[in-house]
Please model this.
Amino acid sequence: MHFKLSVVVALLTVATSGFAEVDESALSLQVERAFPSLRLRRPVVIANAGDGSNRIFFVAQQGVIHVTPNDPSVEKTTTFLDIESRVVYKDKENEEGLLGLAFHPSYRQNGEFFVYYTTTDAPHTSVVSRFQVSKDNPNQADPASEEELLRVEQPYWNHNGGPLAFGPDGCLYIALGDGGAGNDPHGNGQNLETLLGTILRINVDRKDDGKNYSIPKDNPFVRHERARSEIWAYGLRNVWGMSFDRQAGQLWAADVGQDIWEEINLITRGGNYGWNLREGKHKFGANGSEARDGLIDPIWEYHHDIGKSITGGSVYRGKKLPGLVGAYLYADYVSGKLWALRYDDAQKEVVANQSIPSKNMPIVAFGEDEQGEIYFTDSFGFIYQLAPAAN
Model:
């Protein structure tokens, strides 16, 4: 019975995603604790500083960044930055908080890193700020060094987005949700005059007049009279997981669905990803669009029969699992399932979406160490990695 059900689910996934001959076999991998002695409060970001120190950083949603050596025997973390007093977080409204962290590509030289959080000084307001590491202690940031770059008012507490990532071009990319509630009631996803429902691209190494950042001249809407020039792509609902493939340079974004479909997108300059006219590859709502003209479909989607809240990850470029190289790891928070997806760029289609045996964990974040090894966390605060399946 179990075998028959798994076959039906596999066929449903292929049929509803519009792809044929997709490999959906199970991978011979297992999930194991990466740091058995560690347990953190709601770790929603995993990052490395790219400075050769081989440290790993974990962001607690309540407003604390932890740092630890990349050593499985470590028994406790060090507090790198504590701004909990500046951060809004409520258990019953748990999409606010400290949601993003990215280290400057020249962090070793300039000590700069960037965070995205919900501030306590205004209702439902997200800020992106620059901080500096302490001059005396590489494991401690200077909380007084905050320089606010961007402030975005949110109409509701949910759909805050929050992922930050530096691209190969040295620019900072920022994912913002549509502002919340349901159905995108303000139409933010298709409105270029708001920053909500978008991915932004800014230059943090220069400052335009009146800003603590500059807008790259090759951003797609710089010369658009009725658009925010920071926007790189739009039509997104609530990106939860955004990362650059460190080898190919492609920007991946997992967008959490509403009614039926979860989706994975490859983000391109000026792309419109359809929300709230479409959910996944399908018309959404009474005013939705059946046509795809001008709208970019996801490369992959899955039905809510399979999972109900996608957690985006990274393309694996490590060395410990050579059979996994080039696969994009992602999960579903509600169903606890875990997959490795392969996309053929020449064919412009997904060729594999292989399941990884897991313990049905509510996975909330993925991240890489300096070597490209991938770690992930669950909502209970444990940290995991993949390993070859035991014989």
Notes: Residues 2-17 form the longest helix (16 residues).
